Amino acid sequence: MKASVLITTYNQEAVIGQAVESVLAQATAFDYEIVIAEDCSTDRTRSVVCEYRDRHPDRIRLLLRERNLGLVANFPRAFLDCRGQYVACLDGDDYWTSPHKLQRQVDFLDAHPDYSICFHNALMVWEDGSQGPTVHSPPGRRPTYYLSELLRHAFIATASVAMVRNHLVREFPSWYETLAVPDWPFFVLHAMHGKIGYLDEDWSVYRQHPAGMYCRLAGEKRMEQNIGIVRTFRDVLNPEWRPLLNEVVHGRCLSLALYYREQGNRARAREFARMSIREARKGLLGSWRLQAKVFAYMRVPALHRLLSRRRAALHAASPVTSVHPPDAASGSFRC
């Protein structure tokens, strides 16, 4: 089978139908299956997906959990049950907007065997109307990205925009289910095996609502959560990635310190400023320079914002070769 579409869902009776319909609407020159992993919902979600299965028994396959596993456990188990050469993911509260999405992503991966992931933009829509729709796209909108960049920043908006080459990850490491969110580490595991291809198209709606994982956490909590994820990467990836990940943790701790500084929470600001210095001392820069930098940024937060914008602009304009990892095989992990 050419492709599997994996839908994970829990308590989404009002929206799961739109997700499934957007997959059934795909126009492809190949056969594909729809695998729906229903995580023991307490509403009518299970009844809805069973009705779809009954109407499309040759297309839809259900994985009905006997107890609630939670997303970080339900997702990897369901992924390993997918039979297609490629797997496209879709969260049960999102939906696709183009009937050509699957075909275009399959065509890309067929034509680029050295790529392990293909993704596109997401249109973020706030269900409560608190914000207008926003397109989530990667920095620079370049056709190719690499593991080194993905370790720095989770630039793939959501699993609902991605297709991966199947059977590169035949089992998930023990640390995977200890993390709070599955998407970023899922992409890292696949980026260890190839390049990341980007299609500059808006083919998926990424709902933002109070029950969603993205909206449940305040900004600072998401930042702290991401620091924990990067520290896990540092612990489990090969040592050659450690200098880069030390730098990433240092930068994220400093950003959080500045955030708390601007919020007037000086105790938390000092805590993360000290943490950023401790993390940076693990790298190659002299500690006195780092302490001076942190002190300057804490005194004048606008300086950090200005320099960050300048670095981001330079990074987006840099040639692709400047961010290619030195060794494509260096993505393996130690556990």
Q: What is the total tally of β strands?
A: 10
| Order of helical and strand elements | EHEHEHEEHEEEHEHEHHHHHH
Helical residue percent band: 40-55%
Query: Beta-sheet strand percentage?
Result: 15-25%
Largest sheet: 10 strands, mixed
Number of helices, where a helix is a run of at least 4 consecutive DSSP H or I residues: 12
Name given to the CATH architecture of the largest domain: Alpha-Beta Complex
The fourth-level CATH homologous superfamily of the largest domain is Spore Coat Polysaccharide Biosynthesis Protein SpsA, Chain A
CATH topology of the largest domain: Spore Coat Polysaccharide Biosynthesis Protein SpsA, Chain A
Rg is: 21 Å
Keywords:
single chain; 335 residues; alpha/beta; Spore Coat Polysaccharide Biosynthesis Protein SpsA, Chain A; 2 domains; 12 helices; 10 strands; globular
Structure description:
The relative contact order is 0.11. 43% of the residues lie in helices and 19% in strands. It is globular. The protein folds into 2 domains: 3-216, Spore Coat Polysaccharide Biosynthesis Protein SpsA, Chain A (Alpha-Beta Complex); 219-318, no CATH class. It contains 12 helices and 10 strands. Strands 1, 2, 3, 4, 5, 6, 7, 8, 9 and 10 form a 10-stranded mixed beta sheet that branches. The protein has 335 residues and is an alpha/beta fold. Strand 1 (3-9), helix 1 (16-24) and strand 2 form a beta-alpha-beta unit. Residues 319-331 have low confidence and may be disordered.
